[in-house]
Amino acid sequence: MQCRIGCGACCIAPSISSAIPFHSFGKPAAVRCLHLDNENKCSIFLQSCRPLVCSGFKATEDACGSTKEEAMAILSEWEILTCITQAVPKMNDRN
After folding, report:
1. Number of domains composing the chain
2. In the predicted model, what is the mean pLDDT of the chain?
3. Residue 92 CB-density burial (10 A; 0-12 exposed, 13-18 middle, 19+ buried)
4. What's the CA gap between 76 and 33, in Å, rounded?
5. Whether the Cβ atoms of residue 90 and residue 43 lie closer than 8 Å to each other
6. Ramachandran bin of 62, using left for φ above 0, alpha for ψ from -120 to 50, beta for the remaining angles
7. Is residue 93, in this structure, part of any structural domain at all?
8. Hey, what's the torsion of the CAs at 63, 1, 42, 67, to 10 degrees?
9. Residue 87 maps to a domain
10. Is 88 among the domain residues?
11. Other CB atoms within 10 A of residue 51 CB
12. What tens digit of pLDDT does each residue of 37-80 get?
């Protein structure tokens, strides 16, 4: 499958845990990458500073669906299913 130029879902929906240019601490899920231009194209696509996590992503129908909206929904769901949650300690009853 060819990437849909101007989609940008893979640069918005998922989190990126590693530092990347302009995102020193990574990028939170559902936050637009600062490298997306106004046409949802990656401004560092052909540059060596492009993170491996980005260059390693390949557009597939199961990830991208058939529209940008489907891609956002699928990738957002995958983000939720794979996120690491921090355990919250239980509060002791004070009764």
Report:
1. 1
2. 88
3. exposed
4. 15
5. no
6. alpha
7. no
8. -60
9. no
10. no
11. 19
12. 999 999 999 999 888 889 999 999 999 999 999 999 999 999 99
